[in-house]
Amino acid sequence: MKANMSSASTRCRSFFVFPILFAVVLLSLPIPSSADTRHVINFRSPGLYPEGLTWDPRDQHFLVGSLHSRTIHSVSDAGVIETLISDLDLPENATILGLAVDSTNRRLLACIHSLPPLPPFSALAAYDLRNGGRRVFLSPLPSLPGDDEDIARDVANDVAVDFKGNAYVTNSAKNFIWKVDRDGAASIFSRSPLFNSQPVAADADASFRDCGLNGIVYISKGYLLVVQSNTGKVFKVDEESGNARLVLLNGDLIAADGMARRQRDGTIMVVSQKKLWLLKSQDSWSEGVVYDEIDLDLEGFPTAVTVGERDRIYVLYGRVMEGIMGSYKEEGAREWFGIEEVWSEKEGGEDKIWLYVLIGFGFAYFCIWRFQMKKLITNMDKKIT
Ligand SMILES: *[C@@H]1O[C@H](CO)[C@@H](O)[C@H](O)[C@H]1NC(C)=O
């Protein structure tokens, strides 16, 4: 009888401890809500008009490039901006476009492009991030044989990097992809006929009608994804052969610009001046689904998207068009620019569902506990009486 009582009391104690533990776990979980304040970073740099944005996970800051001053800057979470690279070997007034951090080699890769009426220039630059931004190479990117750059110039628009340090650069004017190896050797990598097979969107205006392949990301399974502005299509490109396939999507990403990938779950973000699209795929991008579209501030002219600390999604409001239109030339240059977190309500919803499942599980456990307690008490009553 005595032995029975003591084992009952230890069982009793564990019955009490589990639900309490559960309650503690539930209470300590962050409850997502749309009232969360998005992280907005404003930074001051007169006349910068940045087009490219990336995040350096090691040094924990953003990197942005200048429209005309041949500089690349770091921007902290709090909006402190510092000049990281000032490369006067670049042609005067050249533009820094796409940026990517090569984490393997601790380098920053930057697309360099000269806008008309400057002489044509398209190159990829690499800077050593361990070394105060010393330049490793500046590789001019080859044109197609027979192309006259003075008639239609190449545009080195965006860049992605693989784990070996090879860079892949989109040519948005001529619809092909360059490859630049880690020593700076540049070649034309992919000229898939598919890149010229899709119809230009009917509502394409002058701002992107001639803009083809643009945002690009590298995926560790041996391929790249690249988006085409004027058709809104996404292509999957083999890293070895350069062969391309059209990704089947439930919509066209018209006027798409920069692209980024969230490591945690493989979500792809594509930005345009109007919105940010979130895409997922279950089959390594034979097919994909646009599962959220978030409206952006058109005035801010978003051009780039990146994933920052704690998997947060950020877009760059660089007001590039205003800079290109020339208001930067005189004292009237804009001084403030922004990097803003973008929040997907749909993702918030998913998180909540996950939370409800957990609460439901807790409740079920509680019911079982009550049932067993009742049985135990009945048993004890029987034994005592
Ligand atoms: C670069 O821009 C400045 C300021 O707009 C201008 O004065 C200068 O002539 C430009 N240089 C070239 C090579 O176009």
TrEMBL record:
CC per GO annotation: endoplasmic reticulum
Keywords, in A-Z order: Membrane, Signal, Transmembrane, Transmembrane helix
InterPro entries: 6-blade_b-propeller_TolB-like (IPR011042), Sensory_adhesion_molecule (IPR053224)
Regions crossing the membrane: 353-371
Signal peptide range: 1-35
SUPFAM superfamilies recorded: NHL repeat
PANTHER family: MESOCENTIN (PTHR31460:SF3), PTHR31460
The protein's name in its UniProt record: NHL domain-containing protein
Organism of this sequence: Arabidopsis arenosa (Sand rock-cress)
Lineage: Eukaryota, Viridiplantae, Streptophyta, Embryophyta, Tracheophyta
